[in-house]
Amino acid sequence: MAGELAKEETAVTKVKVLKKNNVKPHKPLGTKVCQLVTFDLPYLAFYYNQKLMTYKGVENFEETVEKLKDGLALVLEDFYQLAGKLGKDEEGVFKVEYDDDMDGVEVIVSVAEGMEVADLTDEEETTKFQDLIPCNKILNLEGLHRPLLAVQLTKLKDGITMGLAFNHAVLDGTSTWHFMTSWGQLCCGSTSISVPPFLERTKARNTRVKLNLSKPSEAPEHANSATTNGDVTANVDPPLRERVFKFSESAIDQIKSKVNANPPEGPCTPFSTFQSLSAHVWLAVTRARQLKPEDYTVYTVFADCRKRVDPPMPESYFGNLIQAIFTVTAAGLLLSHPIEFAAGMIQKAILKHDAKVIDERNKEWESSPKIFQYKDAGVNCVAVGSSPRFKVYDVDFGWGKPESVRSGSNNRFDGMVYLYPEKNGGRGIDVEISLEVNAMERLDKDKEFLIEA
């Protein structure tokens, strides 16, 4: 698969794109069609979901690229939807469609002259990532004419980066890391993946929702939102600062112990690690924002519903099977109570989100579909994506674990949080936060938030 030399170079990071190819499934599969369902459709106006994985000590870049392409062609035999495109049937129902004549996954090969792994593993900023990850500010709706997965492989002085852009209307985080782990297995010599994807989305929800969305060509380049009447509008975002805060096992234990020391009255199960850390982050961000006591603040969790729906879906369900869970209170009320108050609200909202609530939410949305902006998670919100349960540091293509896993610049807003497990495999958690610049400066100095290991 030869690609034309593209002498593209950016002034900031000096990333040169060498060639662009397309990778298809290794063998012909014919024509495949899969309807998008209610769990998928709200994300059409999010941007592509971006990840950057950085690996050290990779030898022979050209051979590595070909090995990765070969493994990608094999894994796409099972995950063929990622090699397809979005489509709409005659009634306006969105679908993923694949046939052997489609281009497949886009693979970009580049080199970052003078850049080292250490330049990409610090705890600040994401602007340096933008030339290493494809599909910046590209709406998922554009999957009607763009690849649903784009991969950029960049040679560093002492390693390689893998920039990934997944169409979020097609898959969630659980499916993303299932795919990545499977790709790594095949690159490491496995003849088949250990867990094939469950591709029957309509088993989770079989309701045909008709949407009339504007064509991507009609949308502004940096559009942030779309609605079912066809409007796509642009918004100007405030300057943000990104930072990764690393909470060790000891710090996590301290937070969890504090939250569970004085449980609230009434029925209450012990607070989980996630609920404890969520309360800790929510309180700290609210302090840093210096909100008025009467200002509302929202904590939003994108919860995996695979085991919540009836009947339950397998962990290998491929697609989106997440829903946002909202917890709302006044900033003054939140900050005037001990931390278990916040944890209790979060726990209650999560436990309440059962099959009945999910079904009611789906029916309500289907009766009046709304295609959300990526930042419609609530006023003064803290919204949690990703999960420390995702074994992102186990994605091994034959040269060991990644040095770092970070999120790209897409779908970031004031209050967006990504959680990742710590690199060494322990119970520590890395908390990647985007905040307005002044609030981040205050958070960075908050000793109550920055627990010593």
TrEMBL record:
Keywords: Acyltransferase, Transferase
UniProt-listed InterPro entries: CAT-like_dom_sf (IPR023213), Sec_Metabolite_Acyltrans (IPR051283)
Residue span of region Disordered: 212-234
Pfam families named in the record: Transferase
Identification of the protein by name: BAHD acyltransferase DCR
GO molecular function annotations of the record: acyltransferase activity
Keyword Transferase: yes
